[in-house]
Design goal:
The structure is a single chain. With about 270 residues, the protein is α/β, with parallel strands linked by helices. It has a single domain, classed as Metallo-dependent phosphatases (Purple Acid Phosphatase, chain A, domain 2, 4-Layer Sandwich). It contains six helices and 13 strands. The strands form three sheets. Strands 4-5-6-7-9-8 form a six-stranded mixed β-sheet. Strands 3-2-1-12-13 form a five-stranded mixed β-sheet, with no helix packed on it. The structure holds fe (ii) ion (2 copies). The site of one fe (ii) ion has 6 residues, from loops. One fe (ii) ion binds next to loops. It comes from Tritonibacter scottomollicae (Epibacterium scottomollicae).
């Protein structure tokens, strides 16, 4: 039986009627993502939930979380989330206090058992900073959870990636203290993967035996500028979500598809 989830990241919702940086209609982008997922779900087998990997809002205000929830209400899937650097824990916790995965205090760490694998959500938000830090409690949570799941495949979800994407303006603000986390993941008895957001584009790398994958945002992308010293700039490339499914077959495992959001011409049979 196939199990999987949809990764939604960096939705950056602001107050109704406003644009991020004067250009990006993030609410419209999230509505488009929700409509895309709902339309395609009948074609996708085994999707249990969505996982939102941070930057739900742009400033972490109660009004922004209310706006985020009003759009996500239309999603035909349950969802869980971790915060990003643009979130604020107290307003996020208040807005989601009814969610069974939301702890009543402290960082927002959780684990979700999908049967074929587990996803461990780790909160890397350091309030007041854009870069990420994994607190001691988070490292302990990871260690305890990996020990408990034995040789089951482990997928760690964070907002901030530890891998460098080769975009100096973004790499400066990644997860600064992830080496111990990667080492602990590398020592896990089962397959491992790290999924993140924050960089607003699809990038994949490898650190030791840990495949590291960064998912594209639903809204604006960050310009692919590889020059040292360049400032980050946004571009209105198509938004996307990432479908992760566990295929229990040789040559498979966790298979991840980046799906652009929106409606496109087709489908048509190969042979007309
Ligand atoms: Fe972001
Ligand atoms: Fe971020």
């Amino acid at each position: 039986m196939i199990h999987g989830f949809i990764q939604i990241t960096d939705t950056h919702i602001v107050a109704p009627g406003t644009l991020v940086s004067g250009h990006s209609d993030t609410a419209q982008a999230l509505r488009r993502a929700v409509e895309t997922i709902n339309a395609k779900l009948p074609l996708w087998e085994g999707i249990d939930c969505a996982i939102v990997t941070g930057d739900l809002t742009d400033h972490g205000t109660p009004e922004e979380y209310a706006h985020f929830l009003s759009i996500m209400d239309d999603l035909a899937l349950p969802w869980i989330a971790i915060p990003g650097n643009h979130d604020q824990r107290a307003p996020m916790r208040a807005a989601l206090s009814d969610a069974p995965w939301m702890p009543s205090t402290g960082p927002v760490h959780w684990v979700r058992d999908f049967g074929a694998f587990s996803v461990i959500g780790l909160d890397t938000l350091l309030e007041g900073a854009h870069h990420g830090m994994l607190c001691e409690e988070g490292m302990d949570f990871l260690d305890t959870t990996l020990t408990a799941i034995g040789d089951q495949p482990a997928i760690v979800a964070t907002h901030h990636p530890f891998m460098h994407a080769g975009l100096p303006a973004m790499d400066a603000d990644n997860l600064r203290n992830g080496a111990a986390m990667i080492a602990r993941l590398g020592a896990h008895r089962g397959p491992v993967r790290m999924l993140s957001g924050h960089v607003h584009r699809a990038v994949t790398g490898q650190i030791g035996r840990v495949t590291c994958q960064i998912a594209p945002a639903t809204c604006h992308a960050v310009l692919t500028d590889h020059r040292t010293g360049s400032a980050p700039q946004l571009v209105l490339e198509p938004g996307a979500v990432t479908v992760h499914r566990w295929l229990d077959q040789p040559g498979a495992g966790l298979v991840s598809e980046v799906i652009p959001t929106g409606l496109f011409p087709g489908p048509w049979p190969f042979e007309a």
